Amino acid sequence: MQFTYFGQSSFLVTISGKKLLFDPFISGNPLAQHIDIGKIEADFILVSHGHGDHIADVVPIAKRTGAKIITSPEVAGWLGKQGLENIHELNHGGPVTFEFGKVRAVNAIHSSGLPDGSYGGNPLGFVITSEEINFYFAGDTALTMDMQLIPMFTHLNFAVLPIGGNYTMDAADAIIASDFIKCDEIIGVHYNTFDLIKIDTNAAVAAFTEAGKNLLLPQVGETIEF
Predict the structure, then answer these.
(1) pTM for the structure as a whole
(2) Tell me: the pLDDT tens digits for 143-176?
(3) CA-to-CA distance for 140 and 138, rounded, in angstroms?
(4) What is the number of structural domains in the chain?
(5) 108: domain range?
(6) Residue 70 carries which DSSP code?
(7) Overall average pLDDT of the 177-198 stretch
């Protein structure tokens, strides 16, 4: 499986030949100006919540690729008003089966408003399970005891956790989260894009290493394999 990072919380994974794009915020990201969204292919777009730094490029990419969008009912409703129709809405609960595997929407402690100021519903995290690989994308969230439920659902190969603090967990909380989810292979996201979430990346990696865990911080545009 390949994982390509596009900055902030946006990334693309390929599972069973299907390309899954998460929270595309690329064109407005000052750290991702070398990424051409017109060249990003996607079969599915998963959107954790309605904030601009997670939903900004959904509409143009979805219209060009025809990707199916997986998101909450409120975000789905807003996207429908933007002319998108290929949408599967879901909420917290049992997993939903797609061509690549299953998606379980789980709790995220955050807020969610849409670009027009309307209500964005509950923010989500996603647990993806497949014959190829299993992983957890936390979305934007604080540390929450609900994460302890995730190992009851599946064994994770890796997890994508925010580490920037201020709006989400910081690196120290993400280490605790990795204990809760019983996963030591972590990809850090949602950091360094803006001043309020700038961190010492060397210190974060060292803290994870000291805890016996591996924190991966791919460069924007970099692809890693699992």
Answers:
(1) 0.97
(2) 999 999 999 999 999 999 999 999 999 999 999 9
(3) 6
(4) 1
(5) 2-225
(6) E
(7) 98
